[in-house]
Structure formats: structure tokens, C-alpha cells
């Protein structure tokens, strides 16, 4: 809400499905349409059904979910909805089957409830797809009222690959930063992706002052008479068994 309240309401919001973002959108931008990221929908399907569903109903439903990113026009979207409805006509009774605790007392669920859906994962996956299609959140990117001003994204890939991925990489490359420094590093990455960044303007006069005086070294060793490290590398330091014949 703190973020959305500072931004003018867009025509459409593409979201990964987390309820916090959608709730904030409904509160701050009540007239904004929501387009669910189709890639995240497919990921949710794989989470419920796995990559290789065991049941025939699950395999058919996963194939239907995999077709989502192949929808590019209203005709294909309508055919996809018809296929989802046909799936329900074929498997509606299957996903409504129940298992009662008295019939499966060894199931851990039996200690918490009297009954549960037998094919809960398949049922949850179907209900998600049906709800998103019915609410117009699967193919909002095809609606003429939204595309009149230009094409509408159907995934969050530009955000994931353009912003989120660099943020993850900068934290990984600088592993071990304190939390405050991690925040500043993320702010810097976001700032450099803004329109016309000018990093030189962020440097203040006091930043040019060193925090500690530079120590002068004679190069002959420290006060204890021990030699100091330098930048020179001699062949014989690493290959003493084969002296290097130098003309110097």
C-alpha cells in the first residue's frame, strides 16, 4: 500500500499471484485490472501435479496448463476455456471424491478432520485455473480496452530478469554484507536502472576525504625488520627446482 499509493493507477497490473500485491491493488487502485503471470500459473500447476502427474486427470490438466503461454489471440483463449470446461465435464466427479477418516485411519489427516478431498492437488489446480479464467485474469492482456494504448504483458519476466535477477546477483557477488549495506546495494542497482541515472551527483565533498591517513612504507621492511609483501613475482619463488636463466 505504501508503494502503490505513490504511483498513479495503471490500467492493468501483472502479478505473480501473491495475495498481498493483489489486495493492495484492489485497495489502492480499485479500477485497475489484474493479469496473472502465466508462467507463475504454470509453476503453480507443477507444484500441485509435479512435472509428471501420475493420474490421467492430472496429466490432461497439466497439458492444458502448458498451453497457456501459447495463447496469443482471443480465439485461442476461447478454445482454451472450452477445453477447460470439457475437462471438468469429464473429471468433475473424480475431483469431488472424498475420503473419510474412518475408512483410512492410518492417514495423518485422520487425526485432524473427518474427511478430505481424495484428489486434493488435482482439485486445487483445476479450481485455480477455473477461477482465474472466470475472473478474467488469465487473458486480460487480450482485451481491446486494455490493448488500445499498446500491448499488455502477460508475464512478469521483464521484472524477474530485468530487476529481481540483478538484485539477487549483486547480493550473491557481495556475500557477507551487513543488512544495511545489502539494502544500499539493492538501492544502487535500482537507481542505475532508473531513467537517466547520474551517479556522480551522489558524491558529496566529504566522500573525497579519507577516513584514515595513508601509511608510508620505505619498502625495506617494517619496524621489526621483517620483509613486507610487494607486487613483484619471481620465477624462482615458485619453480626453485628449475632456475630461470635470465640474461639480466
Keywords summarizing the entry:
two-stranded antiparallel ribbon; mainly alpha; two-stranded parallel sheet; 248 residues; 9 helices
Could you characterize the architecture of this molecule?
With 248 residues, the chain is mainly alpha-helical. The chain has 9 helices and 4 strands, in the order βαβαααββααααα. It has helices spanning 19-28, 38-49, 56-66, 74-95, 120-134, 144-147, 157-173, 179-192, 235-238, and strands at 12-15, 33-36, 98-100, 115-117. The strands form 2 sheets. The protein has a two-stranded parallel ribbon. It has a two-stranded antiparallel ribbon with strand order 3-4. Helix 1 links the parallel strand 1 and strand 2 (33-36). It is elongated, with a radius of gyration of 30 Å. The mean pLDDT is 88.
Q: Going across the major beta sheet, what is the strand order?
A: 1-2
| Count of individual helical segments | 9
The tally of strands reads 4
Q: What about the largest sheet? A: 2 strands, parallel
Unreliable stretches: none
* String of helices and strands: EHEHHHEEHHHHH
Itemize the secondary structure elements and their pairings.
Layout lengths: L11 E4 L3 H10 L4 E4 L1 H12 L6 H11 L7 H22 L2 E3 L14 E3 L2 H15 L9 H4 L9 H17 L5 H14 L42 H4 L10
Parallel strand pairs: 1-2
Antiparallel strand pairs: 3-4
Amino acid at each position: 500500500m505504501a508503494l502503490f499509493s505513490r504511483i498513479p493507477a495503471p490500467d492493468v497490473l501483472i502479478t505473480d499471484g501473491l495475495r498481498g500485491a493483489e489486495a493492495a491493488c484492489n485497495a489502492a487502485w480499485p479500477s485497475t485490472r489484474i493479469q496473472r503471470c502465466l508462467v507463475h500459473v504454470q509453476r503453480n500447476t507443477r507444484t500441485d501435479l509435479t512435472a509428471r502427474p501420475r493420474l490421467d486427470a492430472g496429466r490432461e490438466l497439466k497439458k492444458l496448463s502448458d498451453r497457456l503461454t501459447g495463447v496469443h489471440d482471443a480465439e485461442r483463449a476461447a478454445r482454451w476455456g472450452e477445453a477447460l470446461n470439457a475437462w471438468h465435464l469429464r473429471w468433475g466427479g473424480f475431483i469431488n471424491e472424498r475420503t473419510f477418516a474412518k475408512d483410512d485411519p492410518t492417514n495423518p489427516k485422520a487425526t485432524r478432520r473427518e474427511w478430505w478431498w481424495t484428489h486434493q492437488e488435482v482439485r486445487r489446480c483445476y479450481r485455480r485455473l477455473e477461477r482465474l479464467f472466470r475472473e478474467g485474469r488469465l487473458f486480460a492482456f487480450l482485451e481491446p480496452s486494455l490493448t488500445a494504448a499498446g500491448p499488455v504483458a502477460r508475464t512478469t519476466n521483464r521484472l524477474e530478469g530485468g530487476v529481481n535477477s540483478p538484485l539477487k546477483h549483486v547480493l550473491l557477488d557481495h556475500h557477507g554484507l551487513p543488512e544495511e549495506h545489502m539494502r544500499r546495494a539493492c538501492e544502487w542497482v535500482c537507481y542505475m536502472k532508473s531513467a537517466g541515472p547520474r551517479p556522480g551527483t551522489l558524491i558529496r565533498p566529504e566522500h573525497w576525504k579519507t577516513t584514515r591517513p595513508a601509511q608510508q612504507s620505505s619498502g625495506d621492511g617494517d619496524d621489526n625488520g621483517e620483509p613486507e609483501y610487494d607486487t613483484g613475482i619471481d620465477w624462482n619463488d615458485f619453480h626453485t627446482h628449475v632456475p630461470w636463466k635470465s640474461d639480466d
